[in-house]
């Protein structure tokens, strides 16, 4: 039986997506609590990790974008990023790239762990094939001495090599293989350095005791999480959320349509068919304001960002400086229900200054309005990061107005 198709305007789809991601709710009136953080995590289902710390670590920013200034140590307790973690609610694994995921999702990622010999990048696959005894030695080290750092393996780091982003030694590669295979995980991070331990000593025993789902069932559950978090999405959008193949995502979507959890839809301007989460909110208005991490789940799939917001965005960290269009660590700026600008930020912790390296407004939006909203959000960001001043460089088509708005 053919399911009826829901027709949505682009504005409706945008508001549904923003609501699903938590941007339709007002920020807490007082200081956000652990309950507020858990609600955001439950909504988005995943926080991407990244080592770049020029403004803030990536996993902290999605909660700031949705809640405003919150105590980062509250998130550290939930993720186990403290010296003596107790019952963390999230664990690290390869989900949408390197990510923090609620521990309840661990059984649904075991199919990926079982593919450690096939799926990871070549260096990790190679060490399992060429040096299995090293894997045994490193796993024994973790068992006897964990939690351990990569440096505790005693294997020296090789000389830097041009074109290699990570200068990993074989001990680190072995740990990363065991991590991908689910045999070890992150016990804690200190100064963002990962300490590895046996998974059975980190994750709750009741989670590890749960039966391993069939692969198709596990992927369907991950697509279900993605569908709820995105609100309205194409198969490509849903597949990207947990980096599942489009073929598997398409099969899972068909099952969810059959069960009534996904509703077939068309969105004006979208070529591929869309699917609406059956409980998705449809607000008439969204009055959000946020600077967004490049790794925020609202914008991390650039194709969707362009389709949903008409906003072309590429991170330029790895682009040579002379070729950058907007700057080094550029964050999209959300105002109302639109991505209206972008801002290149640097937290100068030594001098206590939030440096705005450049600020831009998109075509079609009023510079003074964008600058006023951006100034308010940057003032909150400086407060959150304990920076006492904001300095704006005269680069970008709204930098002048932003400097005036900041006073």
Q: Can you list the strand order of the major beta sheet?
A: 10-11-12-13-14
Derived from helix and strand composition plus strand pairing, the structural class reads: alpha+beta
Number of helices, where a helix is a run of at least 4 consecutive DSSP H or I residues:
15
Q: Which sheet architecture does the biggest sheet show?
A: 5 strands, mixed
Shape: globular
Instruction: Tell me the radius of gyration.
Output: 22 Å
Mean pLDDT across the residues is: 94
Compute the number of strand runs. Answer: 14
From the N-terminal CA to the C-terminal CA, the straight-line distance is 62 Å
Percent of residues in beta strands? 15-25%
Order of helices and strands: EHHEHHEEHHHHEEHHEHHEEEHEEEHEH
Q: Low-confidence stretches at least 5 residues in length (pLDDT < 50)?
A: 161-167
Q: What is the percent of helical residues?
A: 25-40%
Q: Can you describe this structure?
A:
By secondary structure, the protein is α+β, with helices and mostly antiparallel strands. It has 15 helices and 14 strands. The strands form four sheets. Strands 10-11-12-13-14 form a five-stranded mixed β-sheet. The longest helix is centred in the last third of the chain and has 18 residues. The protein is globular and about 65 Å long. The N and C termini lie far apart (62 Å).
């Amino acid at each position: 039986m053919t399911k009826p198709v829901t027709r949505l305007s682009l504005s409706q789809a945008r508001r549904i997506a923003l609501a699903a991601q938590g941007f339709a709710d007002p920020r807490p009136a007082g200081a956000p609590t652990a309950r507020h953080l858990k609600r955001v995590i439950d909504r988005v289902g995943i926080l991407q990790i990244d080592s770049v710390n020029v403004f803030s670590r990536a996993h902290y920013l999605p909660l700031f974008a949705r809640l405003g200034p919150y105590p980062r140590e509250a998130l550290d307790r939930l993720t186990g990023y403290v010296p003596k973690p107790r019952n963390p609610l999230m664990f690290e694994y390869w989900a949408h790239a390197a990510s923090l995921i609620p521990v309840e999702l661990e059984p649904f990622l075991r199919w990926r762990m079982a593919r450690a010999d096939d799926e990871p990048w070549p260096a990790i696959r190679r060490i399992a094939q060429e040096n299995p005894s090293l894997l045994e030695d490193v796993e024994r080290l973790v068992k006897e001495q964990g939690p351990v750092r990569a440096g505790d393996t005693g294997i020296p780091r090789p000389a830097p090599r041009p074109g290699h982003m990570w200068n990993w030694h074989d001990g680190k590669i072995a740990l990363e293989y065991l991590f991908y295979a689910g045999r070890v995980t992150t016990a804690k991070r200190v100064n963002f350095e990962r300490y590895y331990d046996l998974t059975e000593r980190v994750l709750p025993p009741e989670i590890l005791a749960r039966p391993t789902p069939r692969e198709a069932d596990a992927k369907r559950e991950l697509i279900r999480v993605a569908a709820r978090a995105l609100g309205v999405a194409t198969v490509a959008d849903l597949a990207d959320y947990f980096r599942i193949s489009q073929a598997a995502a398409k099969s899972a979507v068909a099952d969810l349509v059959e069960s009534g959890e996904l509703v077939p839809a068309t969105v004006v301007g979208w070529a591929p068919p869309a699917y609406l989460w059956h409980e998705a909110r449809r607000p008439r208005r969204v009055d959000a304001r946020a600077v967004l991490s490049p790794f925020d789940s609202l914008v991390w799939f650039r194709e969707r960002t362009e389709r949903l917001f008409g906003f072309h965005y590429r991170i330029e960290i790895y682009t040579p400086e002379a070729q950058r269009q907007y700057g080094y660590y550029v964050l999209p700026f959300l105002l109302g229900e639109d991505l209206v600008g972008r801002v290149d930020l640097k937290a100068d912790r030594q001098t206590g200054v939030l440096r705005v390296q450049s600020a831009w407004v998109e075509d079609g939006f009023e510079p003074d309005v964008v600058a006023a909203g951006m100034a308010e959000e940057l003032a909150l960001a400086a407060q959150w990061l304990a920076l006492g001043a904001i300095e704006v460089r005269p680069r970008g088509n709204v930098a002048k107005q932003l400097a005036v708005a900041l006073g």
